[in-house]
């Protein structure tokens, strides 16, 4: 399985054929997946049929399937339980990790003061509600981050 960028620039002089509709691709930009070329309208997720050029700049392939990120993670990702509420966390959902624990974003809070953490305006960081007590944290998706609000991560 792999995550690959889709966009390619068509070489001048020779138009590629679309693997979806078998017509020539006349556009300057075309999408590439599984070593084949596609019109933007023709490259779709095998599960939900969404147009992959509209939902992001990458696609996922496994077992000759072309999938959007959400369906790839739904089918092949791992699920787990939230360390705070014990409810299932779907594989495609964003999570917060602290040491070996995984949390829903809504469940991630300081163990000492119960202050919830919220997405900050800067991408990929979380801060406390009260700016004077804020410490940046990194949310993670499938990789490990250590969070230490008030000196103690939740669940420790």
TrEMBL record:
Keywords: LIM domain, Metal-binding, Repeat, Zinc. GO terms for molecular function: DNA-binding transcription factor binding; metal ion binding; transcription coactivator activity. This is LIM domain only 1. The keyword Metal-binding applies. GO terms for biological process: positive regulation of transcription by RNA polymerase II. Residues 16-78, 80-144 form the LIM zinc-binding domain. GO terms for cellular component: nucleus. SUPFAM superfamilies: Glucocorticoid receptor-like (DNA-binding domain). It comes from the Eukaryota.
């Amino acid at each position: 399985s792999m995550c690959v960028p889709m966009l390619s620039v068509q070489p001048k002089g020779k138009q590629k054929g679309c693997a979806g509709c078998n017509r020539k691709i006349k556009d300057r930009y075309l999408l590439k997946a599984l070593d084949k070329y596609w019109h933007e309208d023709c490259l779709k997720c095998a599960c939900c049929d969404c147009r992959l050029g509209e939902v992001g700049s990458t696609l996922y392939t496994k077992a000759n399937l072309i999938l959007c990120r959400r369906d790839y993670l739904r089918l092949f990702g791992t699920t787990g339980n939230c360390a705070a509420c014990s409810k299932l966390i779907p594989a495609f959902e964003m999570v917060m990790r602290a040491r070996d624990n995984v949390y829903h974003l809504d469940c991630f809070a300081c163990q000492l003061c119960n202050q919830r953490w919220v997405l900050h305006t800067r991408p990929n960081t979380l801060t406390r509600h009260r700016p004077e007590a804020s410490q940046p944290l990194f949310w993670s998706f499938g990789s490990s981050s250590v969070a230490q609000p008030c000196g103690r991560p939740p669940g420790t």
